[in-house]
Specification:
Distance between the termini: 62 Å
Number of helices: 19
Shape: globular
Strand content: 15-25%
């Protein structure tokens, strides 16, 4: 039972000592130890796993449920994946079927051609359940039982985004209790402290366990002040977790035959927990024990906390956002959401949601780990939805949309490593499936990186490789790292170019307006279908997204070749592909066509808007340069929304980002706000939900990217400051956003007008700013020479220079 009452004096003192401040309802504190809009908190424990408080260091993840009398901390590791289902499967040789399939498409026999392609090109109808990627697995649970703590008062469970620390405080009888939990970025272990304001008050049991699994053998142990278990799956994947239990006062009692430790009458308990898989070492248990041994003599909570917080803040504090307006930060997060849904304003929730997405990326993706999956790094199920896999037709890309522009570039390293790990299998897949050079990457994957088609008819799609490559290009654009361009991005694009050079064919139909053009056949607009095509997905000649991705690949090849001064002899062939690709089409409704032919959409409100890739996240369609195509994209998007829109928060955020690129801030905000106001889209802990009870974090990451796009855009190296500012945010400021060209930008605005922009130049490039008002530029208090080209202001910069822009009228 959890009673709602004023926060006790001791709870406040404990909270301050732990680095956070308990805020009594309706009262402003005299001083705050953290930004008040960076804390999620609740008056009750989580009712389910997806309502918990997530923490992580990019490799190890934990979900704190905050239950009383038994706390459950669910454990994950980035590399704990099964490898059983796909271990014996390889891509068959199917390329010899392509001529017949293409002949049928060009003869207009769409159904027959599609069914042949789906059945012959390496994928079978109905194989989804059998051959989907191997699932991401839970490590287990740390359970903390405190006997008799059923009825408590002054309960508070909170996550401080700025420190990445979860705290649970409550009063039981006359004693105030506090739990603090974090996954150390500095030491690689999970740290849990249990404390109370009266001595000898902590009595209970600490246990490590795992969900029953007939395909995983668990071997528990307990010795002296340590507990742990080893796990081994039937295919040989093995892992371990081990914990050291330290105490002040009282005594410990290891259990027999279980990974458990009794605690009797302690003043304070400190638990250090390590997790390792055989991806890092052949001896996971010994590795866990070695990590714990390194902390011998150093396991003082204040020092562990300080080193962790410093490492976390080095990333998190790079960007801050402030929005003027009413904020209910003194209320629990679920109550804030309820008030927002009742019509109250709370700009602070937009800040919290924006920063929560950055927090989740920091916590779930770090160098040396696997990329963030559909659930980030948090999963409790043996068979999670979609296996918690790596979906390549927007989901994994959404996870990293905000990596570069919100100043978390390092967090994208696992994505780059993952893509490169697929290259050997991708070359075999390209050759066997399609008879092409280069690489083919399928719709879905897992860290085994086998490049197999696993999702039935949905798998007959070509665009995963170039869409993943976009993030390599972004890294170059934002950082200007020429070595990265030379060694990692350019080689990837060359192999993608080789694939398309071999795959594309000339349209042989003399009566077609695209006669002689180079088209991809078969082609698919991801997960969508049209009237007259196969279901649940339709194959065709030249889906628009494929054409956009092909354009991007060859445009980037040409640009990179010139920057690096290499492959001049290949540029003519690459330009030939661009010159002979069909142009983007405007259809009978004034919409941007989703397919080369103006097919009617069978599901007008379909969740994917793949054909709008050229607006966002791509940049082939630019509002000021391509007004007709931009209008057509706007028509397409409005038709989707007018037909009822989608239930999927990530897609809603994608819709909003397209509106942001089209300069429609109020429409973008309407969609962002719409996610908040739907209980089926946003959970009580701000997790992005599907239909209310399934969390999928692409929505959180995409929401962060949407907010960033509303405040700053920089495609084609032209900065647009406040390009889609909504009326709901009339005044505010943002610090630390990154822009292409090697710039870091701070912005302040009032009455929806720019007050000041501060641009820090890291590369010394010429800065280009699109503006409809005259701007003055100063550096070190002195005027900077500028020139204009149409509505673009240009000025030279030097590395390390700080440039202040203000309206000059």
């Amino acid at each position: 039972m959890f009673r709602k009452s004023q926060v006790s004096r001791y709870a406040v003192i404990l909270a301050v000592a732990a680095g956070f401040l308990q805020i009594a309802e309706g009262r402003e504190p005299a001083a705050e130890s953290t930004n008040r809009n960076l804390v999620l908190w609740h008056r009750q424990p989580a009712g389910a796993f997806f309502e918990g408080m997530p923490i992580g260091n990019g490799h190890v993840g934990a979900m704190v449920l905050g239950s009383v009398p038994q706390e459950r901390i669910a454990l994950n590791h980035t590399w704990l994946w099964r490898t059983n289902k796909l271990k014996d499967r390889e891509n068959p040789q199917t390329a010899h079927h392509l001529p017949e399939i293409r002949k049928l498409f060009f003869e207009g026999k769409i159904i027959e051609a599609s069914e042949l392609a789906i059945s012959r090109l390496g994928v079978q109808q109905g194989m989804t359940s059998k051959y989907s990627p191997d699932p991401f697995q839970p490590v287990g649970d740390l359970l903390i039982d405190l006997a008799g703590h059923q009825d408590v008062d002054d309960y508070r469970r909170q996550l401080d985004l700025s420190t990445s620390i979860v705290s649970v405080s409550y009063r039981h009888g006359e004693v105030n209790y506090l739990r603090e939990v974090f996954v150390s970025r500095a030491n690689g272990v999970i740290v849990i402290r249990l404390s109370a304001d009266k001595p000898s008050s902590i009595t209970g049991r600490v246990t490590l366990s795992r969900i029953d699994d007939p395909e995983c053998t668990i071997t528990p142990w307990a010795q002296d002040n340590q507990i742990g278990f080893e796990g081994r799956f039937i295919e040989g994947v093995h892992f371990a977790t081990a914990g050291t239990v330290l105490h002040r006062g009282g005594r410990l009692q290891p259990a027999q035959g279980a990974a458990a430790m009794g605690v009797q009458s302690a003043d304070e308990v400190l638990i250090l927990l390590a997790v390792t898989t055989n991806k890092q070492t052949d001896r996971p248990k010994q590795d866990c024990l070695a990590k714990l041994k390194k902390l011998d003599g150093k396991a003082e909570f204040p020092a562990l906390q300080a080193s962790h917080v410093a490492a976390h803040r080095e990333l998190f504090d790079r960007v801050s956002l402030s929005l003027r307006g009413p904020s209910h930060h003194n209320l629990p997060t679920d109550e804030r959401l309820a008030r927002l849904r009742a019509g109250e304003q709370d700009p602070g929730l937009s800040i919290l949601y924006f920063q929560f997405g950055r927090y989740l990326l920091i916590s779930s993706s770090w160098a040396g780990g696997a990329p963030a999956n559909l659930q980030g790094i948090w999963n409790e199920q043996l068979n999670p939805p979609w296996s918690s896999d790596l979906h390549h037709d927007c989901n994994i890309q959404m996870n990293y949309w905000a990596a570069e522009n919100t100043n978390l570039s390092e967090c994208a390293e696992p994505l780059f490593d993952y893509v490169e790990s697929m290259l050997p299998a991708g070359r075999v897949a390209a050759k066997n499936l399609y008879g092409c050079r280069g690489i083919y990457i399928p719709l879905t994957g897992d860290p085994a990186a086998k490049c197999l088609k696993t999702e039935g008819p949905w798998s007959e799609w070509l665009g995963a490789g170039p869409w993943l490559a976009q993030h390599f290009w972004w890294r170059w654009e934002y950082t200007g790292d020429k070595q990265f361009l030379r060694d990692r991005a350019y080689p990837l694009y060359k192999e993608l170019g080789q694939f398309y050079e071999d795959y594309l064919v000339k349209d042989p139909r003399p009566d077609s307006p695209h006669f002689g053009k180079l088209v991809p056949v078969p082609s698919q607009s991801p997960e969508n279908f049209f009237v007259g095509g196969t279901q649940p997905v339709s194959l065709c000649i030249g889906a628009t997204m494929d054409l956009e991705l092909i354009h991007e690949v060859f445009a980037h090849l040409l640009e990179a070749s010139e920057i690096l001064g290499v492959d001049a002899d290949k540029r003519a062939a690459w330009q030939h592909v661009l010159d002979n690709s069909p142009p983007l089409q405007i259809g009978k409704h004034g919409q941007l066509q989703e397919w080369l032919e103006d097919h009617d959409e069978a599901e007008l409100n379909h969740r994917h808007i793949s054909h709008l890739y050229a607006v966002f996240p791509g940049d082939q369609i630019v509002l000021e340069r391509d007004p007709e195509l931009a209008r057509a994209a706007d028509v397409s998007l409005r038709r989707r929304l007018d037909a009822g829109g989608t239930y999927w928060p990530a897609a809603i955020d994608w819709h909003g980002a397209v509106f942001a690129r089209l300069g429609q801030g109020d429409r973008a905000y309407e969609l962002l706000h719409g996610n908040f106001t739907s209980e089926s889209c946003i959970g009580s802990n701000l997790f992005s939900l599907l239909r209310g009870d399934l969390f999928q974090l692409d929505g959180n990451f995409a929401g962060t990217a949407l907010v960033a796009e509303m405040l700053l855009q920089s495609h084609h190296a032209v900065l647009k400051v406040l390009p889609a500012l909504p009326a709901a945010w009339p005044a505010g400021s943002v610090r630390g956003l990154r822009a292409r060209g090697g710039f870091e930008v701070d912005i302040a605005w009032e009455d929806r007008k720019l007050q000041e922009a501060v641009i820090r130049s890291h590369r010394g490039k010429t800065c280009q700013v699109r503006t409809d008002h005259p701007l003055s530029v100063r550096c070190g208090g002195k005027p900077v020479a500028t020139k204009t080209q149409g509505d673009i202001l240009l000025f030279d910069t030097r590395p390390g220079g700080i440039y202040v822009l203000r309206h000059s009228d």
